Amino acid sequence: LSRLTRKTAAAGVLSVSVIILTALFVSFSQSTFVAAASSNAMFQPSLRTSFTRLNRILPSSSSPGKLFSRRSSNMLQPNVIMDKKNIVEQDRMVMEYPRFRSLVGGTPLVDITNLANPKVEGTRILAKCEFMNPGYSIKDRIVCHILEQAENKGLLTPGMTIVAASSGNTGASTAMIASMKGYKSIIITSPKCSIEKQDAIRAYGAELIVTASGLKPDDPEHYMNMEHTLCERNPETYFGINQYDNQLNPLAHYQTLGPEIWSQTDGTITHFVAAGSTGGTLSGTARYLKERSGGDVRVIMADPIGSVFYDYFKTGVLKKPGSFEVEGVGKENIPGAMDFGMIDDAIRVSDSDAFKMCHTMAREEGILAGGSGGLNVFAASKLAEQLDEPATIVTILPDSGIKYLSKIYNKEWLKGIDVHLQEGE
Q: How much is the pLDDT for 234?
């Protein structure tokens, strides 16, 4: 009996020793695994499952190497590194997540050289995907900047109404951001604005005014003039975006878009190609890129046939505008935000070439861009065919093709403006 008792006791001691060693090994493995994996989001689901199982083995009381209690073991959050010296109570952690409006900017730069036939090897065409902003357009940048500056200066206060004249995208961005900030908004546009953009503006809760068609730029009822009229009638309660003459427009691109392009190309950009409308994107971005490059970056304005910009840049004479269907670029007058001194050359693009390039982008690169993007890419591809030395050309995709499904991506509409796609386009 005594011998049996001694054997039983020895077996018990051995069992306890094995349990203790197992617990210590699991605890060490746990802390090592956390340090390696908690900083990598892709491991988080597996990490949570592993800890749920591991904590069933470990003692319930605090012990060396124990990282958190069982009740919070399924609350592991990403990007939190834990070790023996850093004991974190998960139930006290508060993760910070961005508001949707804070996602403006930081858009990707993608290689679309495949869409062109560069004259020399080594030339690349890169496109800034501005349709990936929250409002699906580049205009989110200027609206955010203008409204923030107005609030900081006391020009825009709670209870006021924000007014914007727009060909569509600035109106949609204004309606969206105004609703985010708790303001009412009134958007004025022309019949040329696509039904998708009009519906989006209303969906954000804005009042939409669509003016008559065929009005001259100096007509008081022209959409660009109505904003000023409404604000003059209601100076205490209305705030106007004034995107066409507001110098905060190009400044927004000087402070955001220009630096992003310079950083994403690591300063290797040689040419910047973009169409103008208000002139903000073209002027502000160009000024930044020229300053950073010591004037080496060449700026090429893409302009739809019918716009007054091309002739004005080439001759200094403001000629009678023609008609064109591309939305959001080109103009029939010269906005105050446009600085032609930043432009080195210009390329004219037809509606047909712009819209066909949109279809080519969609079919070959999976990029569904608006007409202004097609115009910019076509101009960039023509530039690539002319350059005698390798270059890095950056252009802009200002908005999403989702805004033009009833027009650019509707073959019947295209036929109505005498744009005929080839088989497979």
A: 95
The question of whether 184 is a catalytic residue gets the answer no
pLDDT of residue 82: 52
All residue ranges of the chain with pLDDT < 50 are 1, 4, 33-80, 84
> CB of 393 within 8 A of CB of 126?
yes
How far apart, in Å, are the Cα atoms of 293 and each of 119, 297, 413? 24, 6, 43
Q: Which two tokens stand for residue 238?
A: 């209305």
Put simply, whether the predicted model's pTM sits higher than 0.70 gets the answer yes
Residue 98's CB: how many other CB atoms inside 10 A? 7
Query: Among 66, 103, 125, which Cα is nearest to 272's?
Result: 125
Q: From the candidates 128, 139, 197, 356, give the one annotated as an active-site residue.
A: 139
Q: What is the pLDDT of residue 63?
A: 39
CA neighbor of 299 nearest in space, from 270, 338, 268:
270
Q: In 3-state terms, the chain is what percent helix, strand and coil (to 5)?
A: 45, 15, 40
Per-residue confidence (pLDDT) for residue 422, from 0 to 100: 82
Strand pairing report for 124-129 and 184-189: unpaired
Instruction: Note the Cα 281 to chain centre separation in Å.
Output: 14
Residue 399 to residue 220: CA distance in whole angstroms: 29
Give the phi and the psi of residue 275 in degrees, each rounded to 5: -80, 165
In contact, 361 and 377? CB cutoff 8 Å:
yes
Give, as one character, the DSSP assignment of residue 218: T
